[in-house]
Records
---
Amino acid sequence: MTVPVYKRIKQHIFSHIEQGQWPSGSRVPSENKLCEEFSVSRMTARKALEELTREGVLVRSQGLGTFVAEAKPQSSFLEVRNIADEIHERGNQHSARVDILEIRLAGAEQSLALEVTENSELFYSEIIHFENGQPVQREERYVNPRQAPDYLDQNFTQTTPNAYLNRVASLTEATHVVEAVLPDTRIASSLAIATNQPCLKITRRSWCRKGVVSMARLYHPGDRYRLGGHLSF
């Protein structure tokens, strides 16, 4: 699949920031300059800059231009919690079983979610998390190798993907989609529930300053898990 031009513009800007050529506070090329450099419409250049602004990589100032943002702390409606920490805070024991840890090729859905070309190599893991021996979360995760090149070498019975990715990629932002769903037989079996028992599904994308780090689907038994959040004003 051909990478859309606006994504190539985003990758161009990311590359300059990542290599230290455009440090925080640097002014990035204007829409007009990007149009000339990439031979695109102003709408395409604007889309790239607007997406990077929404992702917190850039800041735009009316009349002044667009600049590389300062590194920002994570800010999302729901805090990205480490499942092991949640379990330990309840005074219980966390353990994990790694069912799959391998390379997979990006399909259309994964290429859009992780902003990579279709058929790119991605890291993939399926992990079941237990609380006092009872399954409480099924984690299916795709990871961009560019952001976490040693992902497949980790022992995820000793640490969690969340903890590892926070350590190596310094996560800055996440989005969540929360749904109540009925599990298929594969998911129900891994969570030790019936297929007619509702479960909570969280689809999460996470970013670092360099781009999208991972996309995860987290499944929880509806009667064993409660999702909470805190919003400050």
Note: Residues 72-78 have pLDDT under 50 and may be disordered.
---
Amino acid sequence: MNSARALTLLTAFTLGVSSVPLSAAGATATASPCRLPGGVLPSAALDARSVQECGAIGRLMDAGDGVALPVQAPGGSVTMDLLFPDGARTYSLTTDEQGRVTTTKHPAPEQFQDLPGPGACERDSYQLRPYKWDKPWLFRTTKGTALATNRQSDFDAAARRSTANMTQGRNTCGMSGRTHARGAFIGHTARQGNFVYADGQTTCGDSDGHNVIDTGDLPGDFLEATLAWTCTWAETRHGVTRAVSADIRMNDADYNWTYRPGDDPACDPAFPPDQQRWRYDVESVLTHEIGHVYGLVNLSAPEDLNQTMYPGIRRCSGHMRTLGRGDVLGMQALYGRR
């Protein structure tokens, strides 16, 4: 999928999100003291005015490419990461403590090429989000969530391992990767992740204080749809920014998955594309997404393609289960070495 095609997809799947029943999402221009238009707000709609003054908290705003995110209360932010088979996009919306909104579209890396490249232990690249967790990320999986084997216990085990991959810095570089980051699977929930749908389109909802991993149909078809979405909410108080909740959704409609990428007889990475035999490793994708949860940013240099945080997923490969040198250094920069 080329960049233009991905951009077209992203723009297409956010049209119509304005019908989402977030607070004030359907407000008319006359209902706002700042004369805000109805529907999804353009990024410049508030023009440095306070979200409280304008009654805009909960309204959807264009964060770039037509991707809508909910306006946060003062001090709040929401970041949405979209992982494709051959790349990624990231959008964020932040309301500062004075109530002024900024949106950011993070640059996408060049299209992923499945080439050897420098080894995972040869690069020390990392980029960090402005937030981190000051408490454990305690997550649940939605009841009935399963991929590949249709057994939830297999999915839960992969989620636990993926969390440990990040918090313990599991690597093959001979590095001590343990950090003070903490996280754990704490059971099942009837809740789904806080992703809001409108006319088949998806965005992050308002923060609800719960951390959920689930599966669902994400926009697009085979090779065009995202593999996974992550929404992370953070709050800034007195100049300190902390993550407060994060949800992950895995695409169970457009891709096939595996827990045994190296010896799955149904897995074949070769061309031409075959939807039934192109399988992606659950643990690898979850490890990358959980990296976002903890505050790591997608890498963009082609030389970093073997780092876990490089957004390109090899088919039938578990290479992202173990962190690269840069991934380990990034987690240690955020949470300290233990």
Note: Helices lie at 3-14, 152-167, 282-294, 325-335.
---
Amino acid sequence: MSPRRPLDDAALRALLLEDAPHGDLTSESLPLAGEGVLSFMARGDMLLSGVEEAARLFELAGATARVLHASGERAGAGELLLEAQGRPDALLLAWKAAQTLVESMSGIASAVRRILDALHEAGSTVPLACTRKNFPGTRTFTARAVKDGGGVMHRLGLSESLLVFPEHLLFLDPGSRHAALAELRRRQPEKRLVVEVGSAEEALAAAEAGADVLQLERFTPEALAALRATLVERGLQVKLAPAGGVNAANAVAYARAGADLLVSSAPYWAPPADVKVAFRRGGAA
């Protein structure tokens, strides 16, 4: 497996610029001298993400860095994740942005992996797809964290997939909805047609109209199982993707009810992982 590359330098430089738009006033005003070494260590068990990005932040700030545990790997309490070496002003410039990035991304990746671990322990291979409902402006980083955790992205944005919401249907004449969905499929033949539904009646109507995937908004596992039975009864082949409220506590129940994939934004709001940072004067040991 090839080493994971950090994200684009432009996105990482923007993090440094946000934190120090006119330089680091404190470091620039002190007579800092010599070199130092900064270490990142895990305070507890975590699934890592953002380590390569953190290393690159130190490099962009003028230091050198090496990754000891790569993104996508598990780390236990006390394990060394990353070391950076260089001028103190360079280390101090990248410190907080790099630490926060690893903590936030590892928190997301760890939450994704916990859900997948629960599914695998129950004997399920149902995938976990995370939505685009992340904090605005952070999708580049959150999508990478989802991937590091073993999940997939449900949608990276409005430009790359078809998802018809009830809010779309609201602005279509009720009598023309079937025809409108058929026209949508004709105009976008490469894309799967996903339709969000909030009831069994809406689900059956969308399935009969040719939906490939039904996104089941706030369905319980029991309601999903009942819908699956009805679809089989009527000979309708469509994938079921529960969404809204899917989390580690109910993922297995949805999988056992017959879900084809799970759609969730819960990992985005998981607590960040805890990374200890230590500085010392001098070069690497």
Note: Residues 125 and 201 are 28 Å apart (CA to CA).
---
Amino acid sequence: MALSQHDLLRLLESLRSTDGLELVREVAQRLLQELIEAEATARIGAEWGEQAETRTAYRNGHREKTVTTQAGDLELAIPKLRAGSFFPSLLERRRRID
């Protein structure tokens, strides 16, 4: 069922409120974090703690990265590798996401 223009305007206003904006920020942060973890898993060749013959590296914790978006600052955890380096292709170094 389609929403009327009045309903859409009310929804937009509720999203602009602090609660709505916080919800958007949390969803964006969760989505970006999941994509980063999936890319790291693909690069390593194995899930967290999984023993696999295709494994090319091992995780060694995370480092914090603050990403500024229109929804506000997002705190992301970038996986570190024991050997080599990893930076998600989703993000650009020292850049803002719009």
Note: The first strand starts at residue 59 and ends at 69.
